[in-house]
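hey m, so remember when u said the tokens were messed up on ur end? i reran from scratch. heres the input so u can diff it against urs
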Amino acid sequence: MQPRFLNPDILSRFDKLIAEGEQQFLEARSSQNNILDPIRLTQWTTSSLNLLDKLSISTNRFVQEFERYGRVNNEYFNIGLALGVLRAAREEYSLGLAVDYHLSVSAAVFGGLLDEASYLLKKSYLRAAAVLIGAALEEGLKTRARAIPILIGPKETLTPLIHKLKTPDVGVITEFQAKQLEAIATLRNDAAHGGDFHHSAKDVEDALKTVETVLRFILTNN
């Protein structure tokens, strides 16, 4: 099944870099000593690594393989092997697998935050638990939005994020889920901004369960 969210700009950039790599590879093969233009090579490798780095975390397999197989020794760069890694990354991204990997890593990170929130809830630290639940939700929604990609402002808050992800053209969360998450945003704000906190332990527990369910859904089902 075709992945729901693929950035056409990333696919186009892949195609351009692959075409440039193929051109440099052919030129090197036709020369007597496999000589590559150092300026063009540096530009191509830097741009390629920058693109690969955007697919997931900075230590992702694509970056590691590009750096490992691209350089045979300190003097000679094997552009053919590096080009193979770039082609493989393009194929994985086109299938949605590169984004899946990134989101699965994020799901594990946010799951850790929710485990901490669960511990605080059991100790009756309701306000602290609510803050952590809200933080996990906000970062999880931001991660999912960036993977689409949706532009996220540096001070983007929960409610605008929820509205962006529920729009018909995006459809990451349903209208029902959006209403649940807006209530949790209010819970988090009440906990984080001081003053009276009138929410019960059950309110916080329900919020925890909802966030666990929603993050599992949006970070592992693409």
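this time it looks ok to me. Residues 8-95 form one domain. if urs says something different then somethings off w ur setup not the seq
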